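Q: What does the assembled structure look like for these inputs?
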Amino acid sequence: MTTKKSKTVEAQDAKDPALVLDGLGVRFGRRWILRELDADLGGRAIGLLGPNGAGKTTLVHTLLGFHRPQEGSARILGHDVVDDRRGVASAVGYMPEQDAFVGEMTAVHFVRLMGELSGLPSQTALERAHEALFFVGLGEARYRKLKSYSTGMKQMAKLAQALVHGPRLLFLDEPTNGLDPRGRQRMLELIRSIRDRGEARIMLSSHLLRDVETVCDEVLILKEGRIASYCDLEAERRSNKTFLELEIREGDAPGSFAEAVADLGCECVRNGKRSLKVVLAEGVTVRDLYRVAHRQDTQIRRLLYKRDSLEDIFLAAMEDSRDPR
Amino acid sequence: MTLVDKGFRVYSGRRTPSALRFLVLTRYAVLEIVKTRKAISVLVLSAVVPLLAATLIYLRHNVPALAMLPGDMGAFVRELAVDGTLFYHLLRWQAGACFFLFLISGGTLISEDLKDNALPLYLSRPIGRVEYVGGKLAVLAFLGSAVTWIPLGLLILLQTSLEGLGWLLEHPRIPLALFVGSWIVILVLGFVCLAMSALLRAKAAAEGAFLSVFLLTPLLAGVINETLDTDLGQLLNVRKLVEAVDRALFGLEPFPELGTIPATIALLVLVGVCVGFLARKVKAYEVVK
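A:
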């Protein structure tokens, strides 16, 4: 049964951005763990990237209401994380990084309990617990105690409990931790299928660039508790923005060649001793580059069409985080 | 049950009232506890004394049955005074049953969740830390009530129905003392039990610590009293503290070595310490400073 109120909430959630950070800061003791976080994220799948200790997990915990921010505010699907913690908790599902379960319970009993705690009526929680466990591939093992599960099965059980109450935003903290390649692939497929269904948004916190790149359409990169970079992967993919990577002969002067290429109206930056990155201007072709090289008495030894990978974006953010966005 | 569509679906149906949602934890835990033979055994044994008391009260009002009892026993039953003293002793006995019930069923209430790191999962849902502890305490309140004020309250009803309303009007203090005294027992034992369960993740350690709080504190109190030639050691004797308050509730002579007010304050301090331990331990994540 769908009540009028729940329909209103659903419609509101669909309109609201998934996550709004407004000068968010979190301090443990005297040390600031997160500082001056500002973002407005509305994608279907948001990636949270950063090296260890960047503050990814603290940010997720703050959004879930486990830590109280000392400055600023955050809103999830329109609910303030401090003033409306219950609203946030009802709308989100959380899959933590570490093992988290009650070992003496069977999977179906445990997932049902989690559903009921989220407000599902008992019978509905039971039905959805069965469905969630089938969805993650634990249908046959759902009557086994969780303590007897393998690492991969425990990860899947954690995902099932995060899904059982049908949340509108899923927080997945390092979901592929401890999984073998097949398990990892399966987990990413499940996450993608949730994303593609379009009913729930996903926030994936990970230090594995590949996982984020394959699942997310927006990425927030954290470094030392601040936003080092933001990238709209979906827009990048749509724009089909490519560049050329050139390698010139040893001994040739890359500086003067770069200047000559720039004179054609292209964007050109040196990328190492002999390497250059070039974004061609409108009307400029590769042939023009060879002409310039000929005039400069420079030999182009290698020329590759490339696209900025998430790894490039991440590494650039790590090097250039003094100018946070 | 529909298992055809295995895809993810957002739930937008009816939700249960959030104010009572902590009772989900209680229901699940109680159902797990009453599945165990140990808990059932203690619950059955705890009914023996109230049943015996009910039999005596019944016989006391049944002249033909009383006449069939052997001489001494008949006289004993006839002379039995159904008053505050009797109910005080019955409450003491049932408090012992409550202690054993909590001992075998309370040790894992929080420790099991802490051991397997389940708290982040509970606390990421629309229940807070207070509700979590409340849900767990309600488990002990339910079990404790089943062995204290409920059976003893039924005895009061039996006595009133046999003796007449006049008896109740003559002893208006007994039902109130019984109810309040039972809740003091339940809450003191309950908070100590939950604090031990939160402090010690291993079931055996939590049970051992709970047992030692009630078995070792009288010994410690005795040692302090003997060595320092004082009565202040009694403030560490948890069992005696509860008894001292219960005596005052039933209007009995207080202990000469332990007044009601110091006993009440000591119990409040004990419960406060337990709440402090729970506040420290029941967290989604501990911040390592």
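Chain B is about 75% helix and 0% strand.
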